[in-house]
Predict the structure.
Amino acid sequence: LGDPKRECRCSPRMVMRYQAKLSGPLMDRIDLHLQVPAVDIDKLISPAHRVVGGQQETSAAVRGRVQKARRIQNKRFRGLKIFTNSQMQNRDIKKFCQIEPPAQRLLKQAVGTYSLSARTYFRLIKVSQTIADLAGEGSIGPAHVAEALQYRVRIQE
C-alpha cells in the first residue's frame, strides 16, 4: 500500500479494514500526515541535503532555521504558559496569528473542499504559523497554508 515499486496484493476489503484501524478523530489529532516511500540504497549512501530555492540546505542550516523559529515563538508567547505554536488554544490563534486575506480565502476553500473539521482548521493554522516562522515571515500567507495542507490532507488510494 503506497509502495511505487511493489503492488499491494491486499483485497479492497483488507485495505479498508487496515485503514479503519485509525479512526477519524484520532487522525484528526495528528498534525502532519506524510507518506514516506522506501529510499533507494544509492540515495541512502550519498550525503543527504534538502534543496531550498534551488540551493542545497545542510542539516546545520535547517537547525539554524528551527532555532530561529523557536526564538520567534518564545518572543511571541513571552510571559505566557505557551512555548510553541502547537500549544496555542483557539483563542490564542485568534490573538497571535496574522492571516493574510488570500491565505484566509485558501483556508476557507480547503474547509469546504475537504470537509475539514473545526479542530483540523485550527491545527492547519498552527502548522501554517510554524511554516511562516521557519521562513522568518511575520504573517501567514497562502504559500504557508498550501504547504500545511499538503501535510494535512490525506489522499485516499
